[in-house]
Amino acid sequence: MGNNFKMVAKTLFGFEEILAKELRNLGARNVKEGVRNVTFEGDNGFMYKANLCLRTAIKIIKPIHSFQVSNENDLYRKIYRMDWSEYLSVDDTFAIDTTVHSDNFTHSLYVSQKTKDAIVDKFRDTDGKRPDVDVKNPDLRINVHIHKNNCNVSLDSSGSSLHHRGYRTATNIAPINEVLAAGLLLLSGWDGQCDFLDPMCGSGTMLTEAAMIACNIPANINRKGFAFEKWYDFDEELYGKIVDASLKKAREFHHTIIGYDKAPSAVRKAQDNIENAHLSEYITVGRKDFFKTRKETDGPLHICFNPPYGERLDIEMENFYSAIGDTLKQGYPGTNAWMITSNLDALKFVGLRPSRKIKVFNSHLESRLVKYEMYEGSKKAKHNRS
Fold first, then answer.
1. Average pLDDT of the chain to the nearest whole number
2. CB 30 within 8 A of CB 40
3. Among 256, 360, 376, which residue's Cα sits nearest to residue 12?
């Protein structure tokens, strides 16, 4: 295993533990949780597999150099000294993403500029020409992270964020991020072993991610490409074998996945996105008002949804969340209902005691993923039977 190297998988706050579990299940070594990231080790083939299969990773980066840095001139000198010809030529394009948490460096754009200057000056001095910057579609994306006086330079193996799965072409206002949806489902314990419902499905992201989990389909199988495909050492044959092997691990799903939405436009968008993901045989979407529905299936039901929020709900917040609780109580026995909301005050109007509350972030909004257990008959009877 001498070809193994360290990598960093970036993720959303609160998803570190489930991402670490995903990595271990894929076969990663030396998995260690951080804050919004998990470090691990593997070879090039594992890097391909991680990008293809991980549901809760946003980026997979490969550290190539680290050093102490005291100021911008020090940064320039040390970036200049690196052998960039291993990764770039004068005919290639590159882009730099920077994050800084340091008293000495306060502007990430300035750090990016100094890094870019060092790289192009090195090529100009050695080759007489310089590579160009292309922020949209570069041949190489470089990640610079400065924490206090520590600088880590990495290569971004993913390219655009891994939440860009490739299946979603039609969206509503503020659609849920695909990585967030997958993470919420995994936190809720969804494993495809019962029926599933998203009663406010919007453009169908939760439904699609639920089906991909249930069928063990690689999360990014519909993506157009990854940054590592442009690297000098990219092994196309190995990548093809990993795609084939990952697809062979898909499994059949013997339950139902159903989505409701009141808006006809949302239903159409959800259906289009589900079709793009080649999952129409597993998912049914219909135009329904959740508050006028009852459970349609026998046996256990897993609900996970992201109710709408925002200014248009300010006046009716109490009624809206109260109706969620009433509908679950009256119409959905034998159900584990999970809901994410950033409106923490609204939860008291649901009128149900959550059995779990998990802190997560929806974009920059602090939110809670809450669980309501709706028993068949009374809760007391449930405990007497167990």
1. 93
2. yes
3. 360
Mean pLDDT of 109-131: 96
Half-sphere exposure of 230 (CA within 13 A, CB side): 22
178-217+251-385 is a CATH 3.40.50.150 domain: yes
Structure tokens at 21: 């579990």
Could you tell me which of 257, 260, 258, 256 has the C-alpha nearest to residue 200? 260
Strand 257-261 versus strand 195-198 pairing type: parallel
CATH of the domain spanning 5-156: 3.30.2130.30
Domain locations in the chain? Answer: 5-156, 178-217+251-385
**Cut 0.85: pTM above it:** yes
DSSP tally for the chain: helices H, then strands E: 10, 15
Can you tell me the mean pLDDT for 264-273?
95
Residue 315 has pLDDT above 70, yes or no: no
User: DSSP characters for 112-131?
Assistant: HHHHHHHHHHHHHHHHSS-P
Mean pLDDT is lowest, of 45-59, 113-127, 240-254, 371-385, for 371-385
CA distance 17 to 360: 12
Q: Mapping DSSP to helix (H, G, I), strand (E, B) and coil, where does residue 97 land? A: strand
> Cβ distance 210 to 304 under 8 Å?
yes
Residue 139 CA to residue 358 CA, distance in Å, equals 39
Cα separation, 34 vs 232, in Å, equals 30
CB-CB contact of 265 with 285 (8 Å)? no
- Closest to 94 (Cα-Cα) out of 75, 112, 111: 112
How far is Cα 283 from Cα 270, in angstroms, rounded to an integer? 10
How far the first Cα of the chain sits from its last, in Å, is 48
321-349 mean pLDDT: 95
pLDDT digits (tens, 9 = 90+) for 196-213: 999 999 999 999 999 999
pLDDT in tens, 152-192: 999 999 999 999 999 988 666 667 899 999 999 999 999 99
